[in-house]
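Hello Y.,

Per our agreement to keep a running log of every chain we model this quarter, I'm adding this entry. I've kept the format consistent with earlier entries: sequence first, then predicted structure.
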Amino acid sequence: MNDASTQPRARRSAWPLAFVLVALIAAALVALIFLRIENWPARTARDLRAAFIDVAHLQPKIIIKNRVYLEQTAQMAELATVMRKTEVEHEFLHTWAGSTKRVQLHGTFLVKAGFDLHKDFSVDVRPNEIDVRLPAAQILGVEEEKVDVLAYENGYWNRISAEDIESELRVMPQLAREKATQANLTGEAERTLKEQLEQKIKTRQPVQVRFGNPLPEPASAR
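Predicted structure for the entry above:
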């Protein structure tokens, strides 16, 4: 009789303990979710910073909730993402008093396209997306590899001077720069950096990478 009467009481006494346990579990879950919500911007900023340093040796300006979370710093002055060997030819003709002089040159140059890291690199971390704004790519440098003289013809009294040669040699790098610009080497540099960043940035929000349009200046973080 005693055993039968104590079983209902034991079951009744277990219910409050079960309610307390469920309440504690629920509170723990709520606290965990709250902490994740509070910490996700900082985690995202760290991930973005690591991705930019890995790809561009640059810490961009990171903006969270319209406040600057990290200021921009760079380890280098510029980042070349594309280098292309470019060949150009140029001919100089000059006629004076019926006498013509002619110089023809062929040059090979290494043209570098990329980014000036002193310009603004901004990342706006939003709940629904990551907005990355980068400066437009530019031609960073033109390095001479080789220049050959294809023709060197003096006129009978119209002779080629040292100044003529120096002037024509100065034209060659500019021609290589113009040829690389017409081939949209800067566009290739932008596509290369965009692909590298998208591969490195791992966030739950989609990433939008844009070039040439800086973000409005936000308030500084306090």
